[in-house]
Design a protein that fits this description.
With about 475 residues, this protein is mainly alpha-helical. The chain has four domains: about 160 residues, no CATH class; about 120 residues, no CATH class; about 110 residues, no CATH class; about 55 residues. It is built from 22 helices and six strands. The protein has a two-stranded antiparallel ribbon. Strands 3-4 form a two-stranded antiparallel ribbon. A two-stranded antiparallel sheet has the order 5-6. A hairpin with a 2-residue loop joins strand 3 and strand 4. Helix 15 packs antiparallel against helix 16, helix 17 runs antiparallel to helix 18 and helix 18 runs antiparallel to helix 19. It starts with a helix and ends with a strand.
Length: about 475
């Protein structure tokens, strides 16, 4: 019989129990979780997917095709009269390739989460993707959220935070989303050449310093908004990471498309958050990131976010303090920080629980009902958007909200009941798939008596499954 801690391991810390999973977790739920904090496993489903460098090349090709189409339309309009210029250009083939590639990657990502036996690790990956949020409604970054998760976050999700931080901030997705790819220091060689060109062409456009990435690293990714840094710190940090950009066509760069443009870098020493950095070029920004990654303010800020995500909207302060202390003592070893959380009785308290966001709801429902073909996965992604959490689209670098108030409104709950019925209708019914058996397999002891009685009395399996997925018990990670 499943224990309450086995259910908490699968549901509070994981993505929801699959059939038979609570029994497999058995009497050692903490060990089951800790075993997932080792080296990242190879995900065969991702083999052969395009890398960010491939997406960059394809994106540039599409931009060139669109530019050529606009120029052709303008020429045709000038030759045949004003009316012709109002026709919309035909959709270019490369754009369709981009959409297909992105949809394929998103469906594969969903399938990996639904099928995974390492759902704690998968939840950690999703946590870090939201912590380092990219919103795909910004067109220039739309292709890179999923590859950034695959290339930068997955390999580092349980390693050192400094390595994770560096991998993310130098990824083309983040550099494009927060505009650092176009940031140029005022005293750089590129700015000086631009100034000379401006004298000859006064209307020429000039690039300048962009503070977006530096600000969000300090405010969201590391120290937190109340850490005491100043606008001067942000500006100096932004200068240190000038030149961090993405590879142009036929330009050598990192495997994922990162390149350092020395000619755009602002020379000179920097003072950021009380420390001096005298490194040259790319190494200056790296040194600052390393310092921010192990700062006590970062330890406190990110430990609070981790505890809030996994334990409760208002996590026990003593738990957060112990996690932050481990962070500082180990130099940001994320596996050790997570082990501190898992080893603390406060994290397992029966009074702690988390309301499922739409991603949690859809994934746990798919896992409970064994819905894992491509049509099911695609429908669930569409459903997630209808429930208010479109995939990789938080519309802000701050990511999606992570407390019950963000997701528990009356309209949202009504939509979940409708979604529960749609999911239940897709389920393939077998002789062992009674609603009560599914409820016990998914929730264990968290299946309350009232819900169990309703499942027994259901007139059909589909009705019972809809009742289960729409029940109050299923809305919480307990």
């Amino acid at each position: 019989m499943a224990t309450g801690r086995a259910a908490a391991a699968a549901n509070r810390f994981g993505l929801g129990a699959r059939a038979g999973e609570l029994a497999r977790i058995g009497q050692d739920p903490r060990g089951w979780l800790q075993a997932q904090l080792g080296a990242p496993p190879r995900i065969a489903a991702f083999d052969g997917l395009p890398g960010s460098r491939d997406y960059l090349t394809l994106y540039i090709q599409v931009q060139q095709q669109r530019r050529a189409a606009r120029e052709r339309m303008a020429a045709e309009g000038g030759a045949s009269g004003a009316g012709a210029s109002n026709d919309r250009p035909k959709r270019v083939g490369g754009r369709n390739e981009l959409r297909k590639a992105l949809l394929n990657e998103l469906v594969l990502r969903q399938g990996v989460a639904v099928a995974s036996s390492d759902s704690f690790r998968e939840r950690l990956v999703r946590f870090w993707s939201n912590h380092f949020a990219i919103s795909v409604d910004k067109r220039i970054a739309s292709l890179f959220a999923a590859p950034m998760e695959r290339e930068a976050i997955r390999p580092n999700a349980t390693g050192r935070f400094g390595d994770l931080l560096l991998a993310v901030e130098r990824h083309p997705g983040m550099l494009l989303y927060l505009d650092n790819a176009r940031s140029v220091g005022a005293g750089s060689r590129q700015a000086q050449r631009a100034a000379q060109r401006t004298q000859a062409r006064p209307n020429a456009r000039r690039r300048g310093l962009n503070e977006n990435l530096a600000r969000e690293i300090m405010e969201l990714h590391t120290l937190g908004v109340n850490a005491g840094y100043t606008q001067a710190d942000v500006i100096e940090f932004a200068k240190a990471i000038t030149g961090w950009s993405v590879a142009r066509p036929h330009e050598a760069g990192g495997g994922n498309g990162f390149v350092f443009h020395a000619q755009a870098h602002e020379p000179g020493d920097r003072r950021v958050f009380g420390n001096f950095y005298r490194q040259a070029g790319e190494q200056q920004g790296i040194a600052i990131l390393h310092a921010l990654a192990v700062h006590p303010a970062t330890a406190q800020h990110v430990s609070l976010k981790l505890a809030r995500h996994f334990v409760a909207d208002q996590p026990p302060p003593a738990l957060v303090e112990r996690m932050a202390r481990t962070w500082v003592d180990t130099g940001g070893d994320l596996a050790r920080v997570c082990n501190t959380m898992l080893g603390d009785e406060l994290a397992w308290d029966e009074g702690c629980r988390k309301f499922k966001n739409p991603d949690d709801f859809c994934l746990s429902a798919l896992r409970a009902c064994r819905l894992d073909d491509k049509a099911d996965l695609a429908m669930a992604m569409q459903m997630q958007g209808q429930l208010g959490q479109p995939v990789f689209q938080p519309r802000s670098p701050a990511g999606f909200g992570d407390v019950a108030a963000d997701w528990g409104g009356p309209d949202a709950l009504f939509k979940r009941v409708q979604a529960a019925q749609r999911l239940a209708d897709r389920m393939q019914v077998g002789p062992e798939a009674t609603p009560l058996a599914l409820g016990q397999a998914a929730l264990g002891p968290a299946l309350d008596m009232q819900t169990a009685t309703a499942l027994r009395r259901a007139e059909s399996v589909q009705q019972g499954v809809a009742l289960l997925l729409g029940s109050p018990a299923f809305q919480w990670r307990t």
